[in-house]
Design a protein that fits this description.
- This protein is of the alpha/beta class.
- Helix content is 54%, strand content 11%.
- Helix 9 (288-293) links the parallel strand 5 and strand 6 (298-301).
- It is flat, with a radius of gyration of 35 Å.
- The model is unreliable at 122-128 (pLDDT under 50).
Length: 343
């Protein structure tokens, strides 16, 4: 039984590569029935009205001026006709100008309505930063690169009969292996369902775990801290303990103590959730960056990456001799014995 349970634990299903129509999913993504297209349509209509207004004003002005010129030359019939057409164009241009102005106003109003309906904060709510996350399936990108390489690769032996036969045989063996894997997966799932120790969602994730990939580029004040917090909060809520893992590619020279302390505490949340945390350092993880890296279960570093140096360096001038020379006494009062260890 223990051997069967161990095999059950280490079995991972490797499905055949498949392309997905949509490999991106965004947080705060809701189906609003195409309401987001209304502001764009109104804006486009307003822009068209503005263009038509400009054209009609130009044409109407030219016709009115030309009609006046003809009236002065005693060509009254043609002049009156041109002035009439020009006046009509000017009246129409005033109407199109009004339509364009109304369209722009309705576009602004509808944009605000759509944002509020989608859950966006109002300008007066104090929450100006609304972060949206996107989940992107990286497997499809690598599969797409393999397909592109096969397309441009010059295959000198592809037309040979022996190659075609071997290719068919290899394809047949691969299909049989996939069927066996599928059958073995069904057996493992049936065993898990009989035991009843795992939920359906845990079973689905158990044989195809997820590795969440986060890229963190830190600066002195950790300007991306809000984004990291949102990413960690999402992963903690959707990740499965003891199944999934998080890979953080970290690059930071360090900076503010409090900001990097908070950033490190965000990574601690991942470990407390029971999700394995892997830290990868490509170039540098110094000071606060190293403090973040030390939180991980596993730390991987590039051969020439700079890692280390947690601490504070400060420079303090010594005024002791100056005070003695000028007969100045300094008194220090502390609240505890170890409040000030350097004097």
């Amino acid at each position: 039984d223990e051997e069967d349970e161990e095999q059950q634990q280490h079995f991972l299903y490797n499905p055949p590569p498949a392309k997905h129509d949509n490999n991106e999913w965004s947080t705060n993504k809701e189906d609003n029935g195409g309401a987001e297209q209304i502001p764009a349509a109104l804006s486009a209509f307003g822009a068209c009205c503005c263009c038509i207004t400009a054209a009609f004003v130009l044409a109407g002005g030219i016709l009115v001026a030309y009609g006046s010129y003809q009236n002065n030359r005693q060509e009254k019939e043609d002049g009156d006709r041109n002035q009439l057409i020009g006046s009509i164009l000017l009246v129409v241009s005033a109407s199109t100008c009004l339509l364009g102005w109304c369209s722009c106003c309705f576009s602004c109003v509808s944009t605000a309505v759509v944002d509020v309906a989608a859950g966006a904060p109002l300008p007066s709510s104090g929450d100006q930063k609304r972060i949206k996350l996107k989940f992107r399936r990286l497997n499809d990108e690598f599969q797409g690169a393999q397909d592109a390489l096969n397309h441009v690769h010059f295959d000198v032996a592809g037309d040979m009969k022996e190659i075609q036969t071997a290719k068919k045989k290899e394809h047949k063996n691969k299909e049989q292996e996939e069927k066996q894997q599928k059958k073995l997966l069904e057996q493992h799932i049936q065993t898990d369902l009989k035991r009843g120790a795992l939920s359906v969602s845990d079973i689905r994730r158990k044989y195809r775990p997820i590795a969440f990939y986060i890229k963190f580029d830190g600066d002195l004040l950790v300007s991306t801290l809000d984004l990291l917090t949102k990413q960690v909060s999402t992963i903690v809520n959707v990740g499965k303990a003891n199944i999934d893992q998080v890979i953080v590619v970290l690059s930071s020279p360090g900076g503010s103590v409090s900001s990097y302390g908070l950033a490190s505490s965000q990574l601690v949340r991942i470990r407390k959730a029971g999700i394995k945390l892997v830290i990868c350092v490509d170039t540098v993880a110094a000071s606060g960056g190293y403090m973040m890296a030390s939180v991980g279960d596993v730390v991987c570093a590039a051969p020439f990456a700079m890692i280390g140096s947690i601490g504070v360096v400060t420079q303090i001038p010594n005024f002791h001799r100056f005070l003695d020379k000028n007969s100045i006494d300094a008194f220090l009062f502390t609240a505890g014995k170890y409040k000030r260890t350097v004097d």
